[in-house]
Design goal:
Subcellular location: Cytoplasm
CATH class of the largest domain: Alpha Beta
CATH topology of the largest domain: Uridine Diphospho-n-acetylenolpyruvylglucosamine Reductase, domain 3
Largest sheet: 5 strands, antiparallel
Family: Belongs to the MurB family.
Keywords: Cell cycle, Cell division, Cell shape, Cell wall biogenesis/degradation, Cytoplasm, FAD, Flavoprotein, NADP, Oxidoreductase, Peptidoglycan synthesis
Order of helices and strands: EEHEEEEEHEHEEEEHEEHHEHEEHEEHE
Strand content: 25-35%
Radius of gyration: 20 Å
CATH architecture of the largest domain: 2-Layer Sandwich
Number of helices: 9
Shape: globular
Cofactor: FAD
Helix content: 25-40%
GO molecular function, one term: UDP-N-acetylmuramate dehydrogenase activity
Number of domains: 3
Length: 346
């Protein structure tokens, strides 16, 4: 393990924001991860687990405790069954499954971050979520003091949520196992209208696996959602707000405020309706590139809040609050942040 005191955290996040960690521990094996967690817990030390840093907003003051950076590696295939170490780079792992001709996570191409974070957030994009293919999650249970294996049904997956996100102080993900599909070089069924249109196919069709992967990469790049150090539109945490899921009562109130506008609406569980956060932000007057300071909305996508190079975390949060409050005033809908907040809150 590598241990550093007063270590900068901003370079370890895709936003390039946040103050230092009092102590930064980098673990390269599962045993090192568990040892570091046990040591912090035994000492009563605050602990922050860091993977790819793509879904974190860290306070300008930093983190007064131990930050555990998981740098484990491991990509193992047994037929169509895949096991990834938590520290594997997600985008690289997806690319490898496509080369192997396996479908199931190809529409999650180009998403930054580590494999271990994917079940926590139930990462999803373009009509696909990891919950569809995750079979097991191996994690260290800080309450039980032992390593446990949780089946998919035990992970409580829902939209951008899971058992791990609901109880963030309990589990540290070590490995994630997926059941992929050998579909003779074909993709999973296309579920997302933008992807279907780009590929010239219908919803439910399958296409060449590589073409599906490349189309998603192109779509993400066009929205500034593929990391590029030279492009400040990618200095973000991806989608900053989740798409609101409204109860029947909430949706009726929302619809009454729309007037002649027609908002995107998609069926959600329990009689709810999901609408588009990006649509709400844009229609509330926050267009691409909005903001005159060091933090602005992306010039490519209204759902990403970006660091233009000299921003602070407080600059970013001020913009996030302005957008959230503006959407609430315009439509009566409360936007909820998707990134994890460390030492700060909206």
């Amino acid at each position: 393990m590598q241990v550093l005191d007063n270590a900068p955290l901003a370079p370890l996040t895709t936003l390039r924001l946040g103050g230092p960690a009092r102590r930064l521990v980098t673990a390269h094996t599962d045993d090192e991860v568990v040892a570091a967690v046990r040591a912090a817990d035994a000492a009563g030390e605050p602990l922050l687990v860091l993977g790819g840093g793509s879904n974190l907003v860290i306070s300008d003051a930093g983190f007064d405790g131990t930050v555990l950076r998981i740098a484990t590696r491991g990509f193992a295939l047994d037929g169509a069954d895949l096991e990834l170490a938590a520290g594997e780079v997600w985008a690289e792992a997806v690319a490898r499954t496509v080369v192997e001709g396996l479908a199931g996570i190809e529409f999650l191409a180009g998403i930054p971050g580590s494999a271990g974070a994917t079940p926590v957030q139930n990462v999803g994009a373009y009509g696909q979520e990891v919950s569809e293919t995750v079979t097991e999650v191996v994690a260290y249970d800080r309450v039980a003091g032992e390593t446990v294996t949780l089946a998919n049904a035990d992970c409580s997956f829902s939209y951008r949520h899971s058992r791990f996100k609901a109880d963030p102080e309990r589990y540290v993900v070590l490995r994630v196992r997926f059941g992929l599909t050998d579909a003779a070089g074909q993709s999973s069924p296309v579920k997302y209208a933008e992807v279907a249109k780009g590929l010239g196919v219908g919803i439910g069709d399958r296409v060449d696996l590589t073409k599906a992967y490349e189309k998603v990469l192109a779509l993400r790049a066009g929205k500034g959602m593929v990391l590029d150090a030279a492009d400040h539109d990618t200095w973000s945490a991806g989608s900053f707000f989740t798409n609101p899921v409204l109860t029947a009562e909430q949706y009726a109130a929302f619809a009454a405020r729309l007037g002649e506008l027609t908002a995107p609406a998609y069926p959600a569980p329990d009689g709810c309706t999901k609408t588009s956060a990006a649509w709400l932000i844009d229609r509330a007057g926050f267009t691409k590139g909005y903001g005159g300071g060091a933090a602005t909305l992306s010039t490519k996508h209204t759902l990403a809040l970006t660091n233009r190079g000299a921003a602070t975390t407080e600059d970013l949060l001020a913009l996030a609050r302005e957008v959230r409050d503006g959407v609430r005033a315009a439509f009566g809908v409360e936007l909820v942040n998707e990134p994890v907040m460390v030492g700060v809150a909206l």
